[in-house]
Design goal:
With about 260 residues, the chain is an alpha/beta fold. It has helices at about 20-30, 40-55, 70-80, 105-135, 155-175, 200-210, 220-230, and strands spanning about 10-15, 35-40, 60, 85-90, 135-140, 180-185, 240-245. Strand 5 (about 135-140), helix 5 (about 155-175) and strand 6 form a beta-alpha-beta unit.
Length: about 260
């Protein structure tokens, strides 16, 4: 059994770095013509160099997912250049946080504009083409914070909980067109956005104590799941949020399993 994405055309937002870059590369390595999308041209240029070096098919395009006209233009460009859109991975995101009482309204709006509205607008942009094809895969980035939010994370957690509901509605509306919609909920994957890798030793140990698999996740873990959800192997999965957190809080006090008996 092999994941085969030959002939598929994918769009990955937030593809310039971190998990998004890993997702885009994994889809490209599996044969998908992959369009990496980001705001920063320097990141897109680095992505283009990687694509050329690997011999992968695709393109690197700038788009602000908060702006409907840019999302619509992106979708039109992809169809004009590659003829179809089979996969959309809504990965672009921000994660500013702070106490509700003092949290800046502008930061609240930014979380929702990028994390939730951006996914909504990108879905609007690609759905007509997927309907014409009568096939498609939409995969949205949620978060473990949508399941159990953290203190100071009201804006981020709320926007990611919104992704879960958006995904379920998409699944229902698009099922008749053979289009699936799913989302994934990563746990602790060290990235430039969350700074887990830069925490002090005590903080790292406390975080790892919440995991049934007591190790940091890797961007490749997420990318492999997304690749599966984008493939024909996942054709009967839709409307799901998949927890990919290493068993974070799967049981009470998971750290007890790692303590030697005395």
């Amino acid at each position: 059994m092999e994941i085969d994405l030959e002939g598929k055309v994918a769009i990955v937002t937030g593809a310039g770095r971190g998990i998004g870059r890993q997702i885009a590369g994994t889809l490209g390595a599996e044969g998908a013509t992959t369009v990496g999308v980001d705001l920063r041209q320097d990141l897109l240029d680095a992505l283009a160099d990687e694509w050329e070096g690997q011999g992968w098919r695709g393109a690197q395009l700038a788009c602000d997912v908060r702006i409907k006209a840019e999302c619509d233009a992106l979708a039109r460009t992809v169809v004009e250049r590659f003829g179809r859109i089979d996969i959309l991975v809504n990965n672009a995101g921000v994660a500013s946080g702070g106490p509700v009482e003092s949290f800046p309204e502008a930061d609240w709006d930014q979380n929702f504009a990028v994390n939730l509205k951006g996914a909504f607008l990108m879905c609007q942009a690609v759905i007509p083409q997927m309907k014409r094809q009568k096939s498609g895969r939409i995969v949205n980035s949620s978060s473990f914070a949508a399941i159990v939010p953290g203190l100071g994370g009201a804006a981020y957690a709320s926007s990611k909980a919104g992704i879960h509901s958006l995904t379920r509605v998409l699944a229902g509306e698009l099922g008749p067109y053979n289009i699936t919609a799913n989302c994934f909920a990563p746990g602790m994957i060290p990235t430039e956005m969350n700074h887990f890798a830069e925490a002090d030793h005590a903080r790292k140990e406390a975080l790892l104590d919440t995991l049934s698999l007591r190790r940091w996740g890797d961007a490749a873990d997420i990318a492999n799941l997304v690749c599966f959800l984008c493939s024909d192997l996942a054709s009967y999965i839709t409307g799901s949020m998949i927890d990919i957190s290493g068993g974070k809080l799967a049981t009470q006090m998971p750290w007890l399993a790692y303590r030697p008996e005395k």
